[in-house]
Amino acid sequence: MARKSEQSTPKAPKEPGRIKQMWQVFNMTRRYDKNVVWIMALGFLLPIAAGLVVALLLSDGNGFSMAMWIVAGVLAGFLVALIILGRRAERAAYGQIAGQPGAVGAVLRSSLKRSWRGSEMPVAVNGKTQDAVYRAVGRGGVVLISEGSKTRTTRMLEEERRKVLRVLPNVPVTFLYVDYNDPDAVPLHKVASRMAKVKPSLNKAEVMAVSNRLTSLGSTGMPIPKGVDPFKVRPQRGR
Fold first, then answer.
1. Which of 154-163, 186-195, 217-226 is modeled with the greatest confidence?
2. Do 112 and 36 have their domain in common?
3. Rounded to an integer, what distance in angstroms lies between the CA atom of residue 116 and that of residue 139?
4. pLDDT (tens digit, 9 = 90+) per residue, 88-137?
5. Taking the CA atoms of the chain, what radius of gyration do you get in angstroms?
6. Strand, coil or helix: what is 30?
7. Of 18, 114, 125, 231, which is the most buried if we count CB atoms within 10 A?
8. CA nearest neighbour of 153 among 177, 137, 135, 173
9. How many whole angstroms separate alpha carbon 40 and alpha carbon 33?
10. What residue ranges are annotated as transmembrane (predicted)?
11. First to last CA, the chain
């Protein structure tokens, strides 16, 4: 019986290897970012060219020294290409979910720096328009991020700021607008980096205390879907 149960138990699907995962990410990024190939190629070749120049100038004809500089250039080029791929892949992934309810929540869940604490669930939602407000706490104080039309969400942000200031009157509150129809708003893929630029005003202990204090405020409004994981979105096939 034990043997039969072991044979009947389905094996868990094997996860793809690191190289296969990188290839899948590259293909997904290339489908949505036509410039990623030549940008990665440029990032790979420039360090190699720099290594060759340094090898010619400093090796004094020493073959081993020249080889080491060239190898260093190749490794540096490979690293630069991977960094470029990672950033362009993240941008392409967020571009696929931009405009969907909960997209800002996906950013807060997967892209925040360690010094920031945020929830993928909004603190306020307009049930009719699906506009939402999200809250994050970090060294820069409290950041309120709106998702939807700037003209409609401004009032929602002001209401949430009043709630925060009632319990934390000395903590700075910053607004970020994610409006997909406004070219001056914060793009989805830049939300985390824009938050990191907020001037620090709290230490780590204060961040924890502020976060715990704001948890008591709860959330209002109608629930909306949780943030979509941009790295699990299936790319659409071209027609």
1. 154-163
2. no
3. 7
4. 887 777 777 777 778 888 888 877 777 888 888 899 998 888 889 999 99
5. 24
6. helix
7. 125
8. 177
9. 12
10. 36-58, 64-85
11. 52
Could you give the number of structural domains in the chain? 2
Calpha distance 48→71 (Å, rounded): 8
Q: Which two tokens stand for residue 22?
A: 């990188």
Q: How far apart are CA 45 and CA 50, in angstroms?
A: 9
The residue from 53, 76, 97 where one domain ends is 97
Q: Which of 86, 19, 80 is nearest to 44 (CA)?
A: 80
pLDDT, tens digit (0-9, with 9 covering 90-100), for 169-206: 999 999 999 987 888 888 888 888 888 888 898 888 88
Residue type, 201: S
Of 187, 186, 75, 179, the C-alpha closest to 129 is 179
Q: What is the pTM of this model?
A: 0.66
Quote the distance between the C-alpha of residue 72 and its chain's center.
30
Which residue, 88, 89, 59, is CA-closest to 72? 59
Same domain, residue pair 88 and 111: no
